[in-house]
Amino acid sequence: MSKPFSIAIHGGAGTILREQMSKDLNEEIRRDLEKSARAGHEILAHGGDAMDAVVAAVKVLEDSEHFNAGRGSVLTHKEMVEMDASVMHGEDAKVGAVAGVRHIRNPVELARDVMEHSPHVLLIGDGAEEFAFGLQHTYTEQDYFVTDRRYDQLQSMKEKGLFALSESKYPDDSKHGTVGAVAFDQQGNLAAATSTGGITNKQYGRVGDSAIIGAGTYAQNGNLAVSATGMGEYFIRKTVASDIAARMRYLKENVQQACEAVIHGELKAMGGEGGVIAINGDGEIHFSMNTSGMYRASIGLDGRLMVKIYADE
Question: Would you identify the CATH topology of the domain 6-310?
Fold first, then answer.
């Protein structure tokens, strides 16, 4: 008889507008969210490790054009893709992260390889790719990542001199694009993974919270696994992921109390928008956001699938 297990995933939080969401796009996004959750859940159902589950789930979202990670990554000021990702296993605090990679189809896989095949925690840019190719990762041309939507989005932002759109052609142009997953496996392990293309029109090799353990990603067996999405600079300043874990560990808050206190408390007060997905040490899931929406899905301890987009769902 199998033991309890669960998984939750997200595809970014922010201003997601119903009036600009076509029926077809709505269905496509929800289908991808379900596919991601089921990919990770299937691994858990067969007794697989939580790390394998979160990587599999995130890969589905990285391969979709609808999310700001992998294939759908936003473009930098120089019309390039620069991607960040991180993973953490809750059993022994093993972590791996990459930042500023340009030719890796699934950065979340490379982050796991940093964890498993190097003595390091975080590799960046050309060095991260040199490491990747030494492990037989396939070199992926930039053309694979550049979509018409992201190119048009970049040109619009360059014209306005912005890093976030005030006028949206798409329902989520003001969304803080990140994808992530958290899982609780039958062995009681927790794991988290996060991946992103960053922010449109970014310059100077900017890196956000998705590559930073304790800011965008955290996992600790018996306590919490969390993946964040939002305004990365604020999430780094508030070390959001580790702060939630600390509130649970030391203040004995439950997962809902801890998430809400951070996301709707000091983070929001200082102007930080976004959200988190979290699973506690018993496999209970919680979503928290201070925005109008967050692409999200989960399959809980009861085996029921949930897929949602808007905050009021």
Answer: Glutamine Phosphoribosylpyrophosphate, subunit 1, domain 1 (3.60.20)
Report strand pairing: 293-299 vs 83-89. unpaired
Active site residue 138: no
Give the pTM: 0.93
Ramachandran category for residue 9: left, alpha or beta (phi over 0 → left; psi -120 to 50 → alpha): beta
Q: Where are the domains of the chain?
A: 6-310
Is a pLDDT exceeding 70 seen at residue 131?
yes
Binding annotation: 206-209, 229-232
Residue 15 pLDDT exceeds 90: no
Binding region for substrate: 206-209, 229-232
Residue type, 17: L
- Residues 244 and 277: their CA atoms lie apart, in Å, by 11
Rg (CA), the chain: 18
Q: Which of 76, 178, 194, 196 is catalytic?
A: 178
Model pLDDT for residues 220-243, shown as the tens digit of each residue: 999 999 999 999 999 999 999 999
